Amino acid sequence: MRKQQREALVELAVRTYRRRSVEAVRNFGSFLPFVQPSYTLHWFQERIAATCQRLLEGGCGGRLMLFVPPQHGKSEIVSRKLPAWALGVNPDLKIVGTSYSADLAQQFSRAIQRTIDGEEYRRVFPGTRLGSGTHGYIRNVDMFEVVGHGGFYKAVGVGGSLTGTPADLGIIDDPVKDALEAGSQTYRDRVWDWYNDVFLTRLHNDSKQILIMTRWHEDDLAGRLLEREGDRWTVLRIPAVCEQEADGELRSPRHVGEALWEERHSLERLRDVERRSPRTFAALYQQRPTTDGGNIVRREWFRHVSAGEFARLHRGGEPVVFFIDTAYTDKSANDPTGIIATVRVGNDIYITHAERVYMKFPELIRHLPRYCAAHGYGDKSTIRIEPKANGLSVIDQLRETTRLNVVATPSPRDSKETRLNAASPVVEGGRVTLVDGAWNEALVDEVCGFPSKPHDEFVDVLCYAIDYHLNPPYKPIDKARTARLVY
User: Fold this and answer.
1) How far is CA 70 from CA 12, 174, 215, 421, 464, in A?
2) pTM of the full predicted structure?
3) Average pLDDT along the chain, 487 residues, taken 10 residues at a time
4) What's the CATH number of domain 299-470, 3.40.50.2000, 3.40.50.720, 3.30.420.240, 3.10.20.30?
């Protein structure tokens, strides 16, 4: 290659680099691959970046919600890269970044600092730099300040304090970490109170808000905001699988039924998620959380087998485990005791029998050994009872008067609604099977009618059974006391 050709190529490379660096300043979407050359933007990620830039430039009414499926890059764009670009454009900007935990918020902070320290960043934003501890400027995982300017970034977990921290831009990236938190009325109320009592108090007239969520529950923070002030928010909802041509108003390049990011989350994998748990898929991947009022568990989710078919499946002789939710008092008028007999076969739970009885304490103590003997109690079986109310007395009395292997279950800290929400994907996935019997309807009616039904004993014992049998690690009982029923 001749010298003139090489020089021409070098000049072209310099001009191209300069053009790219100028674009990185002007355009947030161009900034992303400039500071991270391995980063490839897909159309939906470009749309997210452009919408965030529009918000910062005064659009979107100053309030933006992003509903995007898990692992599709939303946090990389908004929580890790946007603050760095925003501080480059305006080093006096005051930013608060939050997530469900302080640890995750601190991870975002570290990533932002690494970007700002990078060589490529210094080329496009030389006026934005961070101190090294010797300039009198704060720099740690919780907060860092821009040297020579008034800008900073503050990381905090939801529920944490923001006293004395004004914010021009507030980012909330997933205020809940899992289905258990999302299903908890107490936790949802806690997030709502924190948002109103702490987060909002740090904003001013011109402050911008970004709320990034994977929707777990219709009554989550986004749901409450949309119900109360939906007209004040711009919402960018991007489902994992296209539901209408070109994604409707998004005007995307997708057709109905196509995956959002086929190379990373294929349609085959997404459909498998949908088959296993339609409810989870609709909420997390399509951003359409379902209504829970009385419909946490649906009747059609329970599988059924005949007694003969169960006997064929149960050749391995896995032990029958009994779960009992005792009446709150010994008064028989309104307080039933719920009992179920369960077996784990493979990765599924089989409920072989269930019963609700109205008995005072002495009668219940006489009844339980007979019930267990009639429904498969063996030398490896256990009877698991929560030590609440008179449950502790039942445990003590059975241990004293029988040879039954009685175990006190841990008392749950979460509400019944929270626990049933967490357990519902197991039922929805077809992993709870009822052996045909006259008792089937009573159990299904109560569980599917919760919380509007007058009693919830079967809800308790079903949640206990799912938690015990299917939450890892599962360890079959190797040793148990010799069973000898004493009437």
Assistant:
1) 40, 10, 10, 19, 29
2) 0.66
3) 53 65 88 90 95 96 95 94 95 96 95 95 90 79 93 94 91 90 87 95 95 86 92 94 89 92 93 79 80 68 94 89 81 71 95 91 94 95 88 93 92 86 91 94 85 80 93 45 33
4) 3.30.420.240
